[in-house]
Amino acid sequence: MSQANARVLILDDDALVLSGLARLIRAAGHSVECFDSAEGLLDRTDLADFPTCLLLDLQMPGMNGLDLQRRLQRRMPIIFLTGHGDICSSVDAMKAGAIDFLPKPVCEVSLLAVLDRALKIAVEEFNKRREREEIEERVGHLTPREREVMALVVTGRLNKQVASDLGASEKTIKIHRARVFEKMKTRSITELVRLFDKVQVRDAE
Amino acid sequence: MIHESMHSRDSGKQSLGTTGCSQAQCRRSSVGFSEWSLASCLKAVVNSDSEIIARGRSGYKAAFPAFSISCLDAAIRPDDSADANMQSPGRSHAAFPRLAAFFSWISTRHRRADSLFDVKTSLAEALELLPVAIFAVDHNDRIAFANSCLAEILDYTREELIGARVDSFFPSDCDVDSSFPGLNEDHCRHTFDASTTRLLAVQRRNGGSFAAQANTVECHMHNRPFRITALHDRTGYCEVERSGKELAHLVRVSSLGELTGSLAHELNQPLTAILSNAQAAKRFAQSDTIDRMELNEALNDIVLANVRASEVIQKIRTLARKGDIDLLPLDIGSVVDDIALLVHNDGVIRDVRIAFDVGADLPKVYGDRVQLGQVLLNLILNAFDATKDCSPTDRTVETTVRVQPGGGVRITVRDRGHGLAPDQIDKLFMPFFTTKPQGLGLGLSISRMIVNAHGGRLWGENNEGKGASFHVTLPQRQPREEDAARRAS
After folding, report:
1. Domain B21-233 falls in which CATH fold?
2. Does B305 contact A59 at a Cβ distance shorter than 8 Å?
3. d(CA B351, CA B340)
4. How far does Cα B328 stand from its chain's mean position?
């Protein structure tokens, strides 16, 4: 399921724990990258270039796990690890979208199962984001007039109606419409509606 | 109540304490100590205990109703020449050295004809009056005199006691507890007028025994050597001593309780490393191409993590240990390191930045690792509490260890918390004073007790900026103390 370039990020301030977890997860066949501080992870700007999930220690000096979770704004699925998790912090973590909350020491079976789930989500999210970015790029090439035309066309209005809505001739609208289809790399109106919906959803979020 | 008749066991034999007193009459003893002024006897113990004086007064009144109490009062007024003779420099106001002085004074004074008052009485009568268990032992280690107070606490009759061997009541006649605080340090070594102070096990008739402090003075009566001993029941003292230790242990354990979460984390970290490395190693071993290097590294890390977990457990056990003070030459830096390990995670959880700065070339101190660790733990946990409601930037606790100018070391725990209220500073070290809802109020008082017992000082003060600092100074290890350590072991 996991994409070839998917990566598990591990963040723990304890070097022994970090290397142990990394070794196990590598042995299970995943790519791993280790961080010993939240700041170090936030400094990395290329993390959006591949699907990632994060195995995160809850208690760390400086920025703790929950702080980092807020800062990451759901950019990647997070699995929390904790030495002694209290109910409060686990509820906070789950509300903020954590995949799971595992107590240390963590057993291989549950850790790898949760990691698989997290990586699957990471890959799905990554692919969705990629697609959305591509559509957005296509939309970026449209002129303002072409966007107006597209917005009306996807609602099912005919060329004639669009022309009247925009106060232009039907012929002009036809030309705009052809450009929209060309720039959006689509041939059918259904396909265009699907693409349009994806960016609309993104805008609504 | 004090007076009862005493009979000579054997008129042909020289013995002590063969005198009886009846109302308004004072009969001389036929043998034994020479004449003695009762008022002078009381005078000798005047500074020892107000209760003794009061009982002495009433005893005197009962025995000698014909005489004015004011005579007695005049005699027991302080600053009398006789009293001044007994004062030796630096003497404590404890009752027993005074009693010892009293006996020794008797042995010199009894030859003199002069006395403060007209009324003469025998030493035996005087000893009978004292509400303290007293006995005299002759050169054959046989009891020559015993007052009624002694008979009462031993549950024997006086007749049974007189002539009996002293070791049947004081088995081995040796120290019950060589580490009995105060005695070793101050009293035992401190002898004046050939008096000694020891802690004895005293055996009652029913076989039960109790601890008693014994002050013994050697003297000569009619050229015969005697040892006169006053006994004081110290069972209570030993119990207080024991409960003090229990309490210190309790406070240590309760501090550990506060740290439970953090300690769980400190153990879970190495356990996590062990488990994941072991599981990884298993996978490496099962794979077709075994990466020996990787396998080896995993196993090495397991060993490292295991050592770390053992260290944590060791620290907890040390701190939770019950037991006596264990004075040893100590590297205070290592004590600080131990505590740093224990509080590390608590700091993370409470979001307090902790810094430890142990200076170089620190002299060794002489102390108990557990107790000093307890003091430090207590100060740091207090500092955590003090910074609880502060802004994140002020949640800092710094511990520094430096060479103390003039010898020894100084440990300072500094926070940037709310500081100490002026009216609190004086009360901080009082037992049961606390500003915390769940506080016992014993941490600082016990800490100060511990530091004082190490010959050091513990005090707190507000910083010039924010927060407060607590300082512990400990004297440098002294050769003399090494000797004491050898003796103790």
Report:
1. Beta-Lactamase (3.30.450)
2. no
3. 15
4. 18
Q: How does pLDDT run across A35-78, given as a tens digit for each residue?
A: 999 988 999 888 888 999 999 988 787 788 888 998 888 889 99
- Whether A150 and A191 map to the same domain: the answer is yes
> Could you tell me if the ipTM is greater than 0.90?
no
Nearest to B273 among A17, A60, A64 (CB): A17
Token output for B194 = 């050939």
End-to-end CA distance of chain B: 46
- DSSP letter at B112 equals -
pLDDT means per 10 residues, chain B with 489 residues, are: 37 35 34 38 45 52 46 41 37 41 48 39 69 84 86 85 82 42 35 58 78 77 78 69 65 69 79 93 87 90 91 75 71 89 82 90 86 88 88 90 88 91 81 70 80 86 90 78 50
Beta carbons of A20 and B275 less than 8 Å apart: yes
Question: Cα separation of A82 and B312, whole Å?
Answer: 18
Residues forming a β-bridge with B396: B353
CATH number belonging to domain B242-488: 3.30.565.10
Roughly how many angstroms between the first and final C-alpha of chain A, as a whole number? 27
Domain shared by A152 and A118, yes or no: no
Question: CB atoms < 10 A from the CB of A26, how many?
Answer: 16
CA of B315 vs chain A CAs: smallest distance (Å):
19
- Of the candidates A47, A29, A57, the one whose C-alpha atom is nearest the C-alpha of residue A116 is A29
With respect to residue A94, please indicate whether it lies within any of the assigned structural domains.
yes
A20 closest CB neighbour out of B266, B273, B349: B273
Chains A and B: how many Cβ contacts under 8 Å?
90
Please report, for chain B, the start and end positions of each structural domain, with discontinuous segments joined by +: 21-233, 242-488
Query: What range does the domain containing A65 cover?
Result: 7-127
CATH assignment at residue A150: 1.10.10.10
The structure's pTM equals 0.51
Domain termination site, one of A127, A152, A179: A127
Please tell me whether residues A123 and A145 are part of one structural domain.
no
DSSP 3-state of B10: coil
Domain count, chain A: 2
